[in-house]
Automatic annotation (TrEMBL):
Keyword list, A-Z: ATP-binding, Nucleotide-binding
Record-level Gene Ontology MF annotations: ATP binding
Residue ranges of every copy of the ATP-cone domain listed in the record: 62-146, 148-235
Species whose genome carries this gene: Meiothermus luteus
Name recorded for this polypeptide: ATP cone domain protein
Superkingdom assignment: Bacteria
Keyword Transferase listed: no
InterPro entries, A to Z: ATP-cone_dom, P-loop_NTPase
Source taxonomy: Bacteria, Thermotogati, Deinococcota, Deinococci, Thermales
Length: 453
């Protein structure tokens, strides 16, 4: 804690917050919510001045993002320390500098910073700790490092080699940021030791795969090759993620899109909102309700408690309406040869086909949360994350309908041979999602190879 609170007092605050979380029996909390609790506890015990100072700082549980052009990566103290070692500092000096840079960033409340600006902060910290001569030596080593360029083929435009871009690529196969940046540095070192100033893209990929074999094994290296091929795929990839409210579809979709380098991410709820704005309620009433309440538009005045059949009838009616918009989006993306990720409760087996389906690699998956208690907790967490705009009480009131719809989706997915991914642990769900994608890509490229023969 950097607001000027002593260690003993800081530990007391941390203990109090820990007890509050245990009392609430919550296993998950966002960084934003945790910081709010921290600020409130500090204000209660030490006054508004310290609380305000704390609010303006970036805490250890909050990420700092480093921007390199249109790429983003998390700031890592360990990665920075090893980079400083590469620049000639001893291990102790490098780790001292890395801690000092991180402390300065967090005291300043930095949440996002350009890579060039970060270099200035590092240089300033070097000068403050070790003097202007050390800063000059650091700048000299950086200048002498020289740039390595990557080209796709002879005569084609070259692009600068970037450790940050490479690290993001290998993070896609499940490596932690720390390991990914260490591997990227090792690859760069190999290229420099070989005297390379221009390398072919295929050679770079082989070098990365060799490093991955050593660090993580053959399976991870194979996954890297396949995921990299998404960017130069003979067909665009359409990843379709289904599941009921509260299981974590949007989190999974964002994580997988990031790892695959897919920039087009579509929520079926957004498509429904657009249709609502263009089609009057009296024309398509089921479209103007939540998916688990669509039965109300079909019910008679005597239907106060819906039957399972009525709930599913309303749900299927809404899905069929939203599917029209989803079909148009998929067809346009197929014609433009653009990859995309679609997520939402309306991603239902049997409703996602379109006339250009053979022109894409379609990968459907279904996210399922079996633990009912955890499912309820997810709604409470969502309410806090959205500042109360999505009330957990609404979902609690219709929880039986939501669970009924999930059961229906599971049955449809099993019947269609669509993979079911457990949602209890979202990190494991991401790993499982990557496994499914890699397997489907492998099948798709085998099919393409067979067709070419």
């Amino acid at each position: 804690m950097m607001a000027g609170i002593g260690m003993e007092a800081a530990l007391s605050v941390a203990h109090t917050i820990e007890e509050q979380l245990k009392a609430r029996k919550k296993t998950e909390i966002t960084a934003q919510a945790l910081k709010k609790m921290l600020v409130q506890e500090v204000e209660r015990n030490f006054g508004p001045d310290l609380a305000e100072r704390l609010r303006g700082q970036t805490q250890a549980f909050e990420d700092i993002v480093v921007r390199e052009g249109y790429r983003k990566r998390p700031f890592s103290k360990g990665v920075l320390a090893r980079s400083l070692e590469d620049a000639g500092f001893s291990m102790r000096e490098a780790h001292t500098l890395a801690r000092a840079v991180e402390a300065r960033l967090r005291r300043g409340g930095v949440r996002s910073i350009d890579a060039d600006e970060l270099e200035k902060w590092i240089a300033a910290e070097i000068e403050e700790l070790y003097g202007p001569a050390a800063r000059a030596r650091y700048a000299g080593r950086q200048a002498l490092a020289g740039e390595i360029f990557v080209e796709e083929a002879e005569g084609e435009p070259r692009v600068p080699f970037s450790k940050g871009v490479l690290a993001q690529s290998v993070m896609a196969v499940g490596l932690s940021p720390d390991v990914a940046y260490r591997l990227a540095r090792d690859v760069e070192r190999r290229l420099r030791e070989a005297g390379s100033t221009v390398v072919k893209r295929d050679y770079l990929r082989r070098t990365v795969a060799e490093e991955l074999m050593e660090v993580a094994g053959e399976e991870v290296a194979r996954r890297y090759h396949l995921l990299r091929s998404v960017r130069r795929a003979v067909k665009p990839v359409h990843l379709l993620i289904g599941g009921v409210a509260g299981v974590g579809k949007s989190v999974l979709a964002s994580a997988l899109a990031y790892r695959l380098g897919i920039t087009r991410l579509i929520s079926t709820d957004a498509v429904r909102e657009i249709l609502r704005a263009t089609i009057p309620k009296d024309l398509l009433p089921t479209l103007h309700t939540s998916s688990f309440e669509s039965w109300r538009a079909l019910a008679t005045p005597y239907d106060t408690e819906p039957s399972a059949a009525l709930v599913m009838q309303g749900f299927r009616d809404q899905v069929s309406r939203v599917a029209v918009g989803l079909r148009a989006i998929q067809e346009r993306s197929a014609r433009e040869r653009t990859s995309l990720v679609v997520e939402g409760v309306h991603v239902v087996p049997g409703y996602m086909t379109h006339q250009y389906q053979n022109e894409v690699i379609q990968i459907p998956i279904m996210l399922v949360l079996d633990d009912e208690n955890l499912h309820r907790d997810r709604f409470a967490l969502r309410e806090r994350e959205t500042g109360g705009s999505r009330l957990s009480s609404v979902y609690a009131q219709h929880f039986s309908e939501i669970r009924l719809i999930q059961q229906h989706l599971v049955e449809l997915a099993r019947g269609a041979g669509i993979p079911l991914i457990p949602a209890e642990n979202l990190d494991r769900a991401i790993d499982k999602g990557l496994e499914v994608i890699v397997d489907r890509l492998q099948e798709a490229y085998f099919d393409v190879t067979q067709e070419a023969r």
